[in-house]
Protein: Selenocysteine lyase/cysteine desulfurase
Organism: Nocardiopsis mwathae
Amino acid sequence: MDLLTARQLWTLDSVWLNTAQYGIPPRCAHQVLGRAMEAWRTGTGDPADWGAAAAEARRRFAALVGSTPADVAQGTTTSQLVGMVAGSLPDGARVVVPEGDYTSAVFPWMAQADRGVRVRVVPLAGLADAVDDGTDVVAFSLVQSATGEVSPVKDVLSAAARHGALTVTDATQAAGWLPMDATRFDAVVCSAYKWLMAPRGLAYAHLSPRLRSRLRPISAGPAAAVDPMGSFYTSRMELADDARRFDVAPNWFAAVAAAESMRVLQEVGPEAVRTHNVALADRFLDRLGLPPAGSPIVTVAVPGAGERLRAAGVRAAERDGRTRLAFHLYSTEDHADLAAKALS
């Protein structure tokens, strides 16, 4: 699917430059969700169909991030999945995180303080240098939510490998536009309601085999069992032998839409999505006389920016004292120019 064809899948009543807050579904995703909701309302829905859609969504997420379905667990939020990893750390573990990162990638580690888990906060630019032989985990967002800055992944992964530290990254602001290889990390966690354009309440985690051997399936229920349908009423716990052992019950309706949204992303292709999104963000910055950022998430410090954008019909967000804009597949050159004009 080319970009022009994909663009026809959206009909918006605003200039939505706020995907870093939540993504807008393509028409096909909204339609399948509507059919599922109607089947629910009328009592004609089959959970087996919704479960099949959840399995398809898992497969599509795995393909988008360079993983395999067997290595992907299904959850509800980033903090829930990161919390599972944090809760499995040994007492006294040491974790390094970057300053200013999104709290869903930070708080779960800090919540283990009563077990002696210590969290060291350092500037993002110095994250790799902060990893040493005493570091058990280095955790960071692949793309920073507040600024859109892409983290120094290569340096961090190299430092973690030298010192034997686990790597846990939050890809919520990256998956869907930034091509990646999840197998380079021990864990890649992602909420699906932003760049993957799903309803809220669905998240995924690529979990490497080396990490899975250390994790406790603290939320295990039927969804985590070898035979989910045969495990509703048993005291004999037999869990799946792959990442599904860390699943929670699927969010059927979010997954129905997610499968379609991610199909569109796959058909367009990650490289094409990145090229489109970043080009628009850089075009916006250029119109303001600012240097390119190399990210579809950009921020500006312009007095009254939020009000000026709203008056022009542009939807953006205020984050950390700056105005944040985020460009995705449904964004156009006209949108970038309109936003820049409003702030000029």
Q: What stands out?
A: The first helix runs from residue 3 to 7. The chain has twelve helices and twelve strands.
